[in-house]
Write a structure and sequence with these properties.
Layout lengths: L2 H7 L3 H8 L28 E7 L13 H12 L5 E4 L12 E6 L4 E6 L3 H8 L12 H24 L1 H12 L6 H22 L7 H19 L13 H15 L7 H8 L2 H14 L1
Helix pairs in contact: 3-9, 5-6, 5-7, 5-8, 5-9, 6-7, 8-10, 9-11
Length: 291
């Protein structure tokens, strides 16, 4: 082929630099997955099974909390249910369901593996974890109402503080989610996409018009007030004798809000949360015991 045509068909320098960040690697063919029954714990098999939680994280050490609330909820619940695992930094594109986290289980003895996507994690944990003394009914109306409060008002405040507030978007969110992408344009494009996704999510849960930061944070603080009353002087939510799924769900937000260096408008919701001493103590209790 003439050199001029070769040059014309050659990818631009920018594209070549982009793909140089992702070298082609050929992986061995995965063995067929095991069925669920093959993973029942037993003295002869348990030692040879490895669990890996793929999530938004900076470390392969499961004692290092994920910086994403959804991933942190499942990371915490796996710990509460005494399931040993390691973490693996990943992204949504690597997930079979298109979102993180997901759990992989590999058996060294017969070289088989299984993938548990996030929608199936709760069922898998219940089937394979050691029995829990937390018997809170997750189908109960009160449970669903308070869970909706966390995934509504509290989540909206998190999205606004981390993805819409310009200070936190540039100093926290973009660096965390694009740590493996060194090219400036790509990281900024992804940052803009994440910001727009957060705006769309908040609009869906409120009105077609994006509420102000103050309105969003006030609703979150009202939600924290309700959660504080629910917890009261108990150790765990709903008066349980041991931590459960709802404790992990609340911790996923309170831990990140209290421990990330959130600036800008986000300080408003952080300071509001700090005003509820029992929620702060609940976060400390889980962090010290499992992280």
């Amino acid at each position: 082929m003439p050199s001029a045509l070769q040059d014309a068909l050659r990818a631009p320098a920018f594209i070549r630099r982009l793909f140089s960040q992702f070298p082609l690697v050929t992986h061995p063919v995965d063995p067929p997955p095991m069925c669920v029954e093959d993973f029942q714990p037993s003295a002869t098999r348990q030692h040879s099974i490895n669990h890996t939680l793929y999530s938004f994280t900076d470390s392969t050490d499961s004692s290092i909390a994920s910086f994403n609330p959804t991933c942190l909820k499942w990371q915490t619940y796996l710990k509460i249910r005494n399931i040993p695992f390691k973490t693996q930094p990943s992204n949504n594109h690597a997930s079979p369901s298109g979102s993180l986290p997901f759990l992989t289980i590999s058996s060294q003895s017969d070289r088989t593996s299984q993938i548990i996507p996030s929608p199936k994690l709760a069922k898998w944990i219940e089937e394979h974890a050691v029995g829990s003394v937390n018997t809170v009914d997750t189908d109960d109306g009160d449970y669903r109402a308070f869970s909706s409060l966390v995934e509504g008002a509290v989540r909206d405040a998190w999205l606004y503080a981390l993805y819409i507030d310009p200070e936190n978007l540039s100093s926290l969110t973009i660096p965390k989610y694009t740590a493996q992408i060194s090219l400036w344009p790509i990281s900024q494009i992804l940052g803009s996409q994440m910001r727009q996704a957060a705006i769309d999510a908040i609009r869906k849960s409120s009105t077609s018009t994006l509420p102000t930061a103050t309105d969003i944070y006030e609703r979150a603080i009202e939600a924290f007030s309700a959660l504080s009353i629910l917890l009261s002087g108990d150790t765990w939510f709903f008066g349980a004798s041991e931590a459960g799924m709802f404790d992990a769900e609340v911790f996923a937000y309170t831990h990140l809000l209290l421990n990330l260096e959130i600036g800008g408008s986000g300080r408003e919701v952080v300071e509001g949360l700090r005003g509820f001493g029992n929620l702060v103590e609940h976060e400390e209790r889980i962090r010290r015991r499992w992280f």
